[in-house]
Amino acid sequence: MAAPRLYAGLMSGTSLDGVDAVLLELGPRPGPGAPASAAEQAMHPLGHVQLPMPGPLREEFAALHHAGPDELHRAQLAGIELSRLYAQALEQLLRQAGVRAADVAAVGAHGQTVRHRPERGYTLQLGAPAWLAEHCGITVVADFRSRDVAAGGQGAPLVPAFHRAVFGRDGADLAVLNLGGIANLSLLYADGRVLGFDCGPANALLDLWAQRHLGCDFDAGGAWAEGGELLPELLRRLLDDDYFRAAAPKSTGREYFDAAWLERRLQGFEAAEARDVQATLAQMVAASVAADLRGHMPRAGELLVCGGGAGNLDLLRRLRGLLPGCELLDTRSRGLEPQQVEAAAFAWLAARTLDGLPGNLPAVTGARGPRVLGAIYPA
Fold this sequence. Notes:
Layout: E1 5-11, E2 18-26, H1 37-40, E3 44-52, H2 55-63, H3 71-97, E4 104-109, E5 112-117, E6 122-126, H4 129-136, E7 140-142, H5 146-150, H6 159-167, E8 174-179, E9 182-188, E10 194-201, H7 203-214, H8 223-226, H9 232-239, H10 242-245, H11 259-265, H12 274-296, E11 302-306, H13 313-322, E12 327-330, H14 341-354, H15 362-365, E13 375-377
Parallel strand pairs: 1-4, 4-7, 8-11, 11-12
Antiparallel strand pairs: 1-2, 2-3, 5-6, 7-13, 8-9, 9-10
């Protein structure tokens, strides 16, 4: 019998809080005529490492979301620094799991998104995959999103295909919510259909406001927001944005929902308590997700939550209040820690690339058809 295969995934998301590295064991490559799901059914996480993103690098990535001086040079240097952090996380991951680099088939390295403009035909994830392959001695798969964009798609979200493979259940409508810098939903229908899209901002604005007024990276557990009062008029203004009304396929990022977006909507609320603004931002996140779930999957009986926001107890409480009859669980209940899911998805996507299998879902991204994703940098 063919041996299992090992793949690693590296992810640094729109929250800019750190890097997650996950090691996956996948079943043997499916033979001719065998369903691709055969390998997916044998997926096992073997390890997870999380490293914080250094403050200067986080600030540089935030700045690179917008035009600035000497940005091409700065972007390349930032990409190399991110790959150094990736390499550290990967080294720790392999040491923790007792695995040699030579035993890993490939690393799926997402890179750091700094511009996402599919309507203009491009999306940009910074990183240095050639540097990573050279220094780690492992084949690297990167630039997953560009091929889907070239095929007319949004290039995002890509994780719904992975969610279907690992969380989907026959005969039940099930949704998966990733609460990262941006909130995105995967809708796994009982009949096998899959939809997915970005709902709007999540941790990106919550963290921004907490950093500005608490002097810390984020509002731990949502405790600060929980003690605030809702500002109904501000909530209405926050939700009065064309993006929330746009039809899927759709995707967004920090270059749209940024500090300037928030400042425009806060005009006239200068005297508001900062804690009340945080509570209202949290309600905006919950309301946008709940509206999308009710609108696209009204009979969803279960919502699985992953990403850094899965630890925001206040946000989960708000979601439960808006989604009666829908059970909220985190993905730990399905065998995968919430903070591991996205990195695991890019390990899985790297395996799809090397197997010559498509990684996108056209119904999700709007691409003209299934495409094999990613660029391969051999060891």
